[in-house]
DNA sequence: AATGAATGAGAGTTCATTCAT
DNA sequence: GATGAATGAACTCTCATTCAT
């Protein structure tokens, strides 16, 4: 093995370790943010949760805000990927419009269930003057507008489309959070994930159907 | 004028002044909370906005939390009153179920428009581990469940009723916030208050109608 | 009754009332100081204890320090008077030196018992950068030096005289405070006031006798 | 040098530095407390005196009280050690009772001279409702009771023993403080340390001798 | 690269003092 | 003269960030 190779190998080992440390911090941050909120979370809590030294944080992130953005960006990447795929499938008309709606809602609920902490953090609202919660909702509302255009190629005023998308995203995201909290308290009479998805989907589909039927 | 009268008059003048100061603080807090969120808001910002001395705050509130609760309680009192009245009217069947739903949604939107800051504060979400935003949403969801029982006396499982109410309250409240933000930016193609109410109402009514028709 | 008389009468009524208010504040201050110490005592506590309005304080005293000095000065006035009298009697040789010493110690203990709060406050030590406790001890030590000169007209170096006086005043004052605290806890086996005085007196007299016998 | 060794070395260097900082704070606190008293002393004064950053304080002590206790505990440890040793020697009867008394008084005076600030702080009196000064005096009075029992095995009532011990400790400690203040002002006619010890010792011994001779 | 001691700006809170009533 | 609401300086404590090791 050449000198250069050795160096590279060592470098890659280093960067792998570095990536692991970074991951630890992101995971820890997600947990801490979910419990204490963004503003109240402290770097000390996060590094302690990650079982890392105090100063290590600043080797990976320039500030708490940068960390927050990274948590959201990397956390929601998977959801974004799934949604992108669904949009493509909608374009290829593999499913009916109503089927797609239900699939999308199911994706949201499942993602929320598997990323409880992150989901709550992301949709938490306007904390600390950061409009991140809002921008996330806006982002998914915009995406939903795109979807609706694919499904119902009827032209409706942009403003109405936005309002519809906003409404549905708000409903789905908050209801998912609510559902997780219900589940947590282990009520005897509680809705399964499938039931919850079914109810919300039917509601959304009925509303949309009505809306588009009149618009035509 | 007797000694006693003088004393009383002085006392009432003082308490009037005190009440005014308290009001100033509540108004200022509402504004500041809407911009920065609860956690990041500082007492200094609030007293400065109210154009009052720093220590004055502590003559009226023991802490930021107490102020926050007072802002919400006193701010939403009017909305609560209107909703209570509507529930009574629903019981007396003065309106059809669908009319009531639309009226309720209109009340929310109008209240939001006239209490922008407050509405955003109240529904801002779970800020910093404080569950106040949540409890407000929960409170109105519970109220909405009551209303639905009056309108559609069909018995449906409690858990489904809760989910429906939660969904609708989430949708209406967040969409109202969104609408206010749209309006602010004075887009050329924007929805009037009446239009927004109409769209959301139609959507909600269609969803509910579908839901109850199947349940029957 | 002439106009002038009326005026005077009214004025005297006023000033009598004023004096009462002042007295209330002094009494309240004494209590509060004894419990919380000088620095930690607040004007609010004092006026509340005196059942007076907040601002009233500043009609009678310019500051907390002024109050503190007044409390001590007026409180110890009686003790000073008694001691002055004893010194005169010593000059007239109505009692033997040892009798005088015992009388003085008895006066201290009785005054301490009847002015618990005040005595503790006065001898509390150096609180808040105020050297008042020290100056009080110094004052009584100086007085005691005078007394010793009367009783034992032998000339001993000033520095030794001061040391002796300081020692005895320290011993008597602190032991009186200790005795009051013992009594408070109502121990079964506790010393009566007379016993305590007797022990301390005998101790002091023996020490002094020895000292002066050698000096001669 | 192995990885582990390096780590350990680094840790020990760090903890050494930490210990130094802690020491600086204790020293500074001693000075500040002696001048301003406990209640009026501020953290800022202390850190400034120690030439350290403001927040550094809280890395080492949780509060001013904790610091105060540490100052006393660590400061008086040496005195306690010496006294313990003397008590042992008294038990082994290496010295006569009167010699022991003089040795003890000398120890107190010498310790006071070498720990001026600390000694004043410790015996400053009941500051602001904190009973620490009192408890220190009580502690040494109790120790002195033990000593007296060794020296004079005659049984005298506990209450009288306590009163005697209290008196002597009060006398010795306050007189030591007084002596230091005299010295400071560099009076022409002032007592040397040895002289002061001699006077106080003779006084105390004469008093005790008289007391025990009568008790027998 | 990792660490954590040191830092100080900034937050909440208290309270002596002023002043309008 | 009596009052207590208003004030802001001063204090304690927290925590993001820096930096020497």
TrEMBL record, chains A, B, C, D:
Keyword tRNA-binding: no
SUPFAM superfamilies found in the cross-reference section: Homeodomain-like
PROSITE patterns per record: HTH_TETR_1, HTH_TETR_2
Entry keyword set: DNA-binding
Renumbered residue ranges of the record's region Disordered: 1-22
Domain HTH tetR-type stretches: 19-79
Transit peptide in keyword set: no
Gene Ontology MF term list: DNA binding
DNA-binding region(s), residue ranges: 42-61
Listed InterPro entries: DNA-bd_HTH_TetR-type_CS (IPR023772), Homeodomain-like_sf (IPR009057), HTH-type_Tx_Regulator (IPR050624), HTH_TetR (IPR001647)
Gene3D superfamilies listed in its UniProt record: Homeodomain-like, Tetracycline Repressor, domain 2
Leader sequence residues: none
Origin superkingdom: Bacteria
Protein name: Putative Transcriptional regulator, TetR family
